[in-house]
Amino acid sequence: MVGAALWAYACHWAPGRNVYPVQGVAVTADDGAIDWGTLAANGADFAYIRAARGADGRDPAFARNWSAARSSGLRYGALLDFSLCRRAAEQATGFITTVPRDNAALPPVIRLAFDPSCNTRPGRDALLSELNTLVNLIESNAGKSALINVSNDFEAEYDIASGINRTLWLDGNFFPPDYATRRWVMWTANDMRHIDGVHGPVRWAVVAP
After folding, report:
1. Is 113 exposed, middle or buried (0-12, 13-18, 19+ CB in 10 A)?
2. Up-side HSE of residue 131: CA atoms within 13 Å toward CB?
3. Which of 26, 54, 30 lies closest to 171, judged by CA?
4. Which residue from 4, 31, 50, 51 has the highest number of Cβ atoms inside 10 Å of its Cβ?
5. Which residues, 6+ apart, have CB-to-CB distance to 142 below 8 Å?
6. Cα 57 from Cα 90, distance rounded (Å)
7. Which residues lie across from 78 on neighbouring strands?
8. How far apart are CA 4 and CA 15, in angstroms?
9. At what angle do helices 88-96 and 124-142 cross, to 10 degrees?
10. What is the pLDDT of residues 99-127, one digit of tens each?
C-alpha cells in the first residue's frame, strides 16, 4: 500500500509554483490524442511539440498538436529529437519543412539523448561539428536561438555544455539537475507525470525563476 501511494504521488508530482511559476509539457505522437483545453486548464503554461525524430522523420501528430496548442492559448514551440545515425543537414531539412514559420512560437529545441536503436557513437569533435551545422540551419529558419535539451548520459559522453554555447534544458526527476558545466534555464522535473488531457505520462518541465 505504501509503495502504491508513493507511486501515485510521484506520477502527479510537480515542483511548487511558488518557486517555479512557469511550467509545461513536451509531447509527441506517442501521447495520443490530447485535449489541449483540459491540459491548459490543469496548469500547463506552454507545450513543446515534437516536430521530427531524426531517424524516423516527421512526427505524425505534429500538425494537429501545433494547431490545437495555438488555439488553446498555450505558448508553443517545436522540438527535434536528434539522431546520431543521420546527418545534421538532413535532420535540419526535415525539421524546417515540418515547422511553419511563426513569430509567436517559442525558440526551437534540439533534444540530445541516446536512442537504443542507434549504435553510432562519433567522436566529440565530429559530433560538435554536426550539431553546429544543425543549430545554424534551424536558427536561420526560426529567427531565434535554439535551446539544447541534453540528457545526463549524453552530456557525460560529449560535454555539450562546454562545446555549444546555447541555453540548456536538463533532465532530472524530482531533483534539480547539476550535471552540466553551465546553469540550466529549463528542467524536466518529472517525466512520468500524469495530467488530465493526456493519456499516459508526459515530460513535465519548468522554467528557472
Report:
1. middle
2. 29
3. 26
4. 51
5. 99, 101, 105, 107, 108
6. 10
7. 49
8. 21
9. 20
10. 999 999 999 999 999 999 999 999 999 99
- Cell 501521447, residue located: 31
How does pLDDT run across 152-181, given as a tens digit for each residue? 999 999 999 999 999 999 999 999 999 999
Q: Answer for the pair 87, 51: CB distance below 8 angstroms, yes or no.
A: no
Global pTM reads 0.93
Which residue stretches of the chain are H helix?
Answer: 2-12, 36-41, 62-72, 88-96, 124-142, 152-158, 160-163
Residue where the block lists cell 490530447: 34
Distance CA 9, CA 206 (A): 18
With CA atoms as reference, report the closest residue to 197 among 35, 8, 30, 22.
Answer: 35
User: What residue type is 132 in one-letter code?
Assistant: N
